[in-house]
Amino acid sequence: MPANPLLPANGAATPAAQVLSVSELNRMARELLESALPLMWVGGEISNLVRAASGHVYFTLKDASAQVRCAMWRNRAQLLAFRPENGMRVEARALVTLYEARGDYQLSVEALRPAGIGSLFEAFNRLKAKLAAEGLFDEAGRRALPRYPRALGIVTSPQAAALRDVLVTLRRRAPHLPVVLYPAPVQGADAPARLLEAVRCAGRRAAEDGVDVLLLVRGGGSIEDLWAFNDEALARTLRACPLPVVCGVGHETDFTIADFAADLRAPTPSGAAELASAGWYAARAELAVLEPRLRRAVERRFGELAQRLDRAALRLVHPRERLRRERDTLARLGERLHHATARRLEAADLRATRAGLRLRAAAPRPQALAARVDMLGGRLARAATRLLEARSQRLDALAAHLQHLAPQAVLARGYAIARDKQGRVLRSTAGIPEGAAVSVQLADGRLDTRVIGHGKA
Length: 457
Hints:
The chain is an alpha/beta fold.
């Protein structure tokens, strides 16, 4: 190890005249650490991971009994082939150093490679894969948040900073919105069961409390601190809750099973409050826009009504003057009615005179038409006589023809009609057995016979 000019060569105490400042002490300690310990590989599990806006990555590397802070600068972090997460077991190629501003001993990480996933992170991934395979995280089952909730339910610890963040956000965005707290611890061995019971209680009392949305919130922490939100029973309870659930656990980079099971994930507790109050907050902005428009509309309406009032005042007259005007109007209308009636009567008389003249002109003259009537009568009598004679002759011919075709006339010429005992006319010998009774109809009577044989015609 090279000698430090500020330290005595024989290892004796620094003289009083050489009192060091804190900055000098920390610089000396950093130089000693960096020169004494070479660049080395250190293995452990990541926790408290923070990705700064500058691109630098800060985290804690730990094992079962110790931990050390680590910093990885942006030019190194952007070369990583994987995304570090809390709970991952990694191997860091790092230089031991000291952060002089705070006097904190830390590792300056040059490279990082996976060394296997930590037990908690591995259990998280197994549970996540199992519930995803069951369809518990399907988008189709997620419910939309109501635009204007009546009240919000919050499941968290009453002492949690997350509760204060949510209340501050709501006070800023929707101060009128009631809040119902369902208290439960957010860390510890009994936290999962208590959180589960709080969610169930919120679901049972939703109608009674008037709650439309449930917020499940907690501040940031390591994977161990947030482990209560990776409980399988809690995830199933969130999915079965009758209320839509917004989960705001940890920071933006923190993910839990509850985030995937909830209807909506918020990056932070404040973000959960913003999502739940988005409708009311937007309504405030819309009202701010509508307020001047409403004011102008009311002012314009008042102006129109004032003008109508002024015009009505101008038309307002004394009742005596109004009655006088009405009498004059009535007199004028009476005169118009009298003249109109007279004109209509004159027109009616004229029409009656003209109709009488047309009626007399159209009256019949019987003497002029008598000869024509006698002539037409004679013609009608002669035509009727000729028609009757023609019809009589035709009738006689049809009667003779009918008599010629009558069955009795046919029988008189020597024909006969044979019938069986049922009275049906026999047209063929087929089907008539010997000995069958047959009735034969002749012109002057009937013969009852019996078949004794069949012969050909």
